User: Fold this.
Amino acid sequence: MTAGYILEPTGADNSSQNGKGERPHRTLANMVRCLLYSSSLGAEFWSDAIQYACYLYNRVYHKEIKMTPYQRWSGHIPNMKHIRTFGTPVTMKIPGDRPSNGHPHIYHGIFLQFTGTAKNIVYYDVQTGTVKVATHKSHDEL
Assistant:
């Protein structure tokens, strides 16, 4: 017994012994599968999908606490106006001046998630094949 807790290890590959603790994991795993499947993105985007699933999960009403986890933590109802669909196309303006009028002034990408502050988004740049962060100005402050 450590600090009032009794350690009771579960058997390997037997998560049903800890059903209450495993339920959020199963919910998030299902959300990740749905995000990846609906966006037609591969498993290489799993880490982005799990982060966005957690972001959404914390902003969804939970019957047990009668509010969202975000609301419980922050004290106010989350603003959901900025929510985007995982894997949708985004077009980002290239910062700075263009060398000429004919020069492209945009990035084409795929939305993956918000950063910790939701002021920036993480997206996959389809031209370079890299993940980038860009300023997201199309929503009200949280």
Remarks:
- The radius of gyration is 20 Å.
- Residues 19-135 form one domain.
- The chain has a mean pLDDT of 80.
